[in-house]
Amino acid sequence: MVFSEGYDAIKSQLGFDLSQLILDSSDAGxxxxxxxxxxxxxxxxxxxxxxxxxxxxxxxxxxxxxxxAHPGDLPKxxxxxxxxxxxxxxxxxxxxxxxxxxxxWVKVLDKGKVHSWDExxxxxxxxxxxxxxxxxxxxxxxxxxxxxxxxxxxDNLPGFVYQYVVDKNGKACFPFASSKVFDIxxxxxxxxxxxxxxxxxxxxxxxxxxxxxxIEKSRVELCDWHEIYRVNHPKKGVIxxxxxxxxxxxxxxxxxxxxxxxxxxxxxKRNEKIQLLTAxxxxxxxxxxxxxxxxxxxxxxxxxxxxxxxxxxxxxxKNPSVFSANQQPKEFYVQMWEVLLKSGRWQGxxxxxxxxxxxxxxxxxxxxxxxEHGHISHFIGAFDDISQAVEKRQLLAQLVNQDPLTKxxxxxxxxxxxxxxxLSATSEENWFSLIYVDLDNFKLxxxxxxxxxxxxxxxxxxEQLSLQLRDKDxxxxxxxxxxxxxxxxxxxxxxxxDIAERCKKAVEDVAKRYATKVPVSASFGIAxxxxxxxxxxxxxxxxxxxxYQMKLKHxxxxxx
Length: 560
What we know:
Elements: H1 7-14, H2 18-24, E1 29-34, E2 40-42, H3 44-48, H4 54-57, H5 62-68, H6 74-85, E3 92-99, E4 105-114, E5 125-132, H7 134-155, E6 160-166, E7 172-177, H8 181-185, H9 189-194, H10 197-202, H11 205-221, E8 225-233, E9 237-249, E10 255-263, H12 265-276, E11 287-292, E12 297-300, H13 302-308, H14 312-315, H15 330-343, E13 345-353, E14 359-370, E15 376-385, H16 387-401, H17 411-424, E16 433-440, H18 443-449, H19 451-467, E17 474-477, E18 482-487, H20 493-511, E19 521-528, H21 536-556
Antiparallel strand pairs: 1-2, 1-5, 3-4, 4-5, 6-7, 6-10, 8-9, 9-10, 11-12, 11-15, 13-14, 14-15, 16-18, 16-19, 17-18
């Protein structure tokens, strides 16, 4: 340690062993300041935090601190110091940025206390510490940035996007809520984040028990939540809303829903009018067709023609099945008819096609009409083109399944793709493989150049890995420096090995621009379906083990 020549005098004046104090706090930067004279003493750690040695900072005084502290933080520091000097606070505590030798800013927690006062009661000697909190600061900034980006995106959607969590004790909260919550519930995002119970108080009393029961059912059975219910909106009055979300069980016992709620008051009113006033169906914006019990089409409305592109003359006398896009299994239509014939009503989403051949989704309601003998005489089908709603739903699914930095699939998205591939791998031509890629020594990039440069490297690596793959191959980022490549319809180890080696070289070529003490490289492992596993867990575990063995070899290498 290096101290000023007046150390012995200071020690004598203060009456305690300064070196012992510094030794006891060796993990932190130590400073000693004479408030009256400006004389200052720092330890090595204090200088190291900003990339210097004490010798490089000499001569040391209070000006040393003032010159390296961020100008924007000094007024706050001075204010807190004076509050401490006046006895308004037991200690001086302040977070401040300091200029690092390499040019970037680091953040320190600056804490201190006056240990001696002069005869007039003014502060004299003050002892304090600097603790480097840069890593925490950068993570908080990154989280704030991502949160602001998500908030901006969801605030531009017409409905209310939210995250709802119920812990294992039954306590609920809203960790995330878009500003459109006001359109649905008449309150602000801040208010429901503060108290989730506020929402339950706004739901119409006649619908509350049903909504609560459906949430509990979704929590216990981990099934999708979907409800249409009324809300006592403080500005709009009673409105109808529709909410959909899928539950995710967390390891801590809580359940999380990421969902979307929109005002469907107009849609509900239209449905009621269709049921009660079928005679004026031509005025509605919903597509409507009327069939016989066979069924054969006997009439359609103008909205039907506009949505589908078919003229009435094109479809009269035909079976509605001619519009089917054949994207749903036969079992779907069997179940639809069972419900319709039993209850007289069916509602759901179906995929049909326009006259141009374009496939689109519909929200379809079918009602049976009965004659005086109780026999079905006609069916009335009413539908909306929900292409935009489906696109919104897909966007929300993308947010849940996408890595926010690289825009690649995250672990959840990868699991979905793996599950799909294993279900379709019914013959050898549908077998597939995966490559588990892990970056070696990546932490050195963050430690040497900062997390921003580390993120830039990850983006470059993601781009280069994608260039090595076919259009139908799938690249996912499942961890900080871990990637997985899915290779559909490919289960030959030599071909996979060649792809993996190309990916390894691509990583190392990109990483050369980041001159770390030990070069960034890549380790990989390969798993073939079904040779190395018949499900996602087994395949990933085998590939991970192979990757780990390669990583051990790299560490044993003189260059590792």
